[in-house]
Every structure is written in structure tokens, then in C-alpha cells.
């Protein structure tokens, strides 16, 4: 089973909000007049960044009448992008208290509190109403969740009939004999990482009543994105908005480890769109 304490220890920083606001001021950004896009360097905690979010949103043809649940919402970056650029009404749920506290404040500072509700909770047992959502958005989240059937059952319960699940996720790769190299953005070691293959996830989803609308392999794109990111980081001065604010010094190992794991097919990245009939 997932250990919430391990997961919160990996992500949680009690002074996270204060550190973000301090760096914003240092870089000449007024937090009182904050725009969602100014937070993208620190709040897009997934491979591909904001461009990957936009591409998936375009694929889903998001509109302002969609009520969306963002599972594993982190600092609220995806929720704010979807609310500000597509007009969606978003409920953003995350397990980590410091993420939720920072997310709620940053959302208020960007003027999006009327579009986004932040909830601290467990994705497998959200406590949210039945059939409340048109779309469940899950971007780099399920790696921390051991109970995949329970997660999918909760998704099925929360969705309206014909509602969809959008997965942009890291899965186990085809090479299982080699150990995955840690630390990674979602886990300092294997104790908080629960990877299954994309095919196994699809089998579980089918058992829980979902049908597959689309599946796309994105490992090559993810590797290229990380390689380009590391090149940019190498040319830029240290500090500023970035993963180091959240993860500390270990974040320097994330990119090289992900690239190595992708190159040796220990992990894989896929998008899947599922529908509740």
C-alpha cells in the first residue's frame, strides 16, 4: 500500500509558499499582481511542462462548461493553466498539506479563486460527490499510488456518464530486470514509487468499466524534453523559480536519472484517454 507519510515527506516543505513568494520578489515580480504564467517555471511539475498540458487540453477539446477534477494537483499549476486559458471549473486535490496551502494562496494571488477549489485529500478516497465531474485530469500522479484498482474505481464513481479520464503518466518500461535509478521527481527511492506498465493500467481500467479512446507513447518526447531542459539549466544562473525550491539539492539528479531510465526503457511515458460509458 502507499505510505502517505513517505509521499508527503518527499513533496512537503512547510516554508514552500514563503520561499516562492520571496523568489518572486527577488526577480522583480509583484505577488499582489501575479499572473498564472509567471509561476510556470515552478508549478508545472510534469514532463513536457505547460506545452504538454496545452496539447492534452487541445486533444480533449476543453471548454468553459467542463467541470474538471485535477488529481495530484501539486502547486496548482495545471489547474490554473486550465482555468485561465480554457475557462474550466477545477477542483484541485492533493495529498500534501504544504502543496495545498501554497496552491490555494497562489491561486488567490492570480485571481482564479472563483474558478478553482483546492482540496487536501487522498485520490483513492476523495470524499467528493458521486458523478460530479465531466473530466478527471491525472498528470504524473498515479506513480505514488499503490492501489490502482481503488484509484480507478474512485474515478468511475466521480465521473458523470460519458465522462473521461485524461492520463499523462509515467509507467514501468519494457525492461524490468534492471533497477530503476532514483531519486526521481515523484520518489526519493522505491518505497514511494508504484509503477505498473501502461498495458497493465489499461487492463485494470477495462475491468473497472472504462473504455479506451486513445493511447499514445511519449517516451521519446519526454526524453528530448528533459535533455533540452538540462541544457537550459546548464546555461542559466542558479537559484530562481524551479524544482530546487520544492525538492532541494536532490532535484539535480532528477533529469540525469529520468533520461537514463527512459533510454534503458526502465520507465515509459504514455497518454491515455478513457471514457466511462
Query: Approximately how much helix is present in the residues?
Result: 25-40%
Q: What is the oligomer described by this structure?
A: single chain
Number of strands: 7
Secondary-structure element series: HHHHEHEHEEHEHEHHHE
Commentary on this structure:
With 277 residues, the protein is of the alpha/beta class. The chain has a single domain, classed as Vaccinia Virus protein VP39 (Rossmann fold, 3-Layer(aba) Sandwich), CATH 3.40.50.150. It is built from 11 helices and 7 strands. The chain has a 7-stranded mixed sheet with strand order 3-2-1-4-5-7-6.
Question: Which secondary structure elements does this structure contain, and how are they paired or packed?
Answer:
Layout: H1 4-11, H2 16-26, H3 40-43, H4 49-60, E1 67-71, H5 77-86, E2 89-94, H6 97-109, E3 116-120, E4 133-139, H7 148-158, E5 159-172, H8 198-207, E6 211-217, H9 219-235, H10 244-247, H11 254-263, E7 267-275
Helix pairs in contact: 4-5, 9-11
Amino acid at each position: 500500500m502507499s505510505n502517505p507519510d513517505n509521499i508527503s515527506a518527499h513533496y512537503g516543505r512547510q516554508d514552500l509558499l514563503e520561499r516562492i513568494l520571496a523568489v518572486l520578489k527577488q526577480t522583480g515580480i509583484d505577488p499582489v499582481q501575479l499572473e498564472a504564467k509567471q509561476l510556470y517555471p515552478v508549478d508545472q511539475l510534469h514532463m513536457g511542462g505547460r506545452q504538454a498540458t496545452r496539447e492534452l487540453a487541445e486533444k480533449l477539446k476543453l471548454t468553459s462548461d467542463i467541470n474538471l477534477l485535477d488529481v495530484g494537483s501539486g502547486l496548482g499549476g495545471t489547474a490554473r493553466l486550465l482555468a485561465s486559458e480554457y475557462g474550466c471549473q477545477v477542483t484541485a486535490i492533493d495529498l500534501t498539506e504544504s502543496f495545498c496551502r501554497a496552491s490555494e494562496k497562489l491561486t488567490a494571488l492570480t485571481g482564479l479563486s472563483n474558478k478553482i477549489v483546492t482540496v487536501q485529500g487522498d485520490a483513492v478516497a476523495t470524499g467528493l460527490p458521486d458523478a460530479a465531474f465531466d473530466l478527471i485530469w491525472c498528470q504524473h500522479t498515479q506513480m505514488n499510488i499503490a492501489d490502482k484498482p481503488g484509484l480507478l474505481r474512485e474515478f468511475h464513481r466521480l465521473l458523470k456518464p460519458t465522462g473521461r479520464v485524461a492520463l499523462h503518466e509515467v509507467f514501468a518500461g519494457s525492461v524490468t530486470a534492471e533497477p530503476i535509478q532514483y531519486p526521481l521527481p515523484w520518489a526519493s527511492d522505491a518505497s514511494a514509487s508504484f509503477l505498473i506498465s501502461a498495458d497493465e493500467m489499461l487492463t485494470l481500467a477495462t475491468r473497472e468499466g472504462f473504455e479506451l479512446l486513445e493511447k499514445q507513447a511519449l517516451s521519446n518526447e519526454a526524453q528530448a524534453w528533459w535533455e533540452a531542459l538540462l541544457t537550459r539549466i546548464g546555461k542559466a544562473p542558479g537559484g530562481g523559480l524551479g524544482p530546487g525550491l520544492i525538492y532541494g539539492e536532490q532535484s539535480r539528479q532528477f533529469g540525469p536519472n529520468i533520461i537514463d531510465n527512459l533510454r534503458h526503457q526502465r520507465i515509459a511515458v504514455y497518454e491515455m484517454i478513457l471514457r466511462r460509458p
